[in-house]
Amino acid sequence: MERDELDDDRPMSVRCAQCGECPEWESLSDGYGERWLGVCRCGRMQAFLPDQPAVESKDALAAFLLGAGREISAPTPAWIRLFMRSLEQPWNTRWRYSPEPCGACAERVCFVLQVCPRPYWLATCRLCLACGRATTAYSQPWQNLHELAVSGSVWAPPCLAVQRLRNCVFRPFARLEAPN
Ligand SMILES: [Zn+2]
Ligand SMILES: [Zn+2]
Fold first, then answer.
1. Higher pLDDT, 152 or 75
2. Crossing angle, helix 160-170 and helix 78-86, to 10 degrees?
3. Distance between Cα 42 and ligand 1 center (Å)
């Protein structure tokens, strides 16, 4: 394949329609084809489907997770709502995509966040967008102190892992800049 043809399949040059910045792109592919999700610093998400490049999806995250035309019509799952809200003002959470499969469902749509939940504590949070599994690990690296990681996927009422994830996203003591 020619280089130009390959480039056509990659949305990297697409700019955010809202602010003109270049979003960060992640891709996934399964039996329904290859799909890309661009998350912009301003919080706007857009999906790119190489099989249907002309399709503009209203719900970019759903199109990315499920494919075009298969968007969720049922209520949005709680973890997707948390994830989408976390990208907005005033939180502007900088999630980092993690290519490792989810420990619960084995899908590769996990995002990682590191914050200081309280002074001198570091929390590493992991969220699977496919099944809602949350894992939070608290540590004091400078003291070489690591608590056991807590995992769970119960959102109502929230289990400990979900409560900690919510605190880390919406009420952190301090944020860390995600490495690019
Ligand atoms: Zn933008
Ligand atoms: Zn999962």
1. 152
2. 20
3. 4
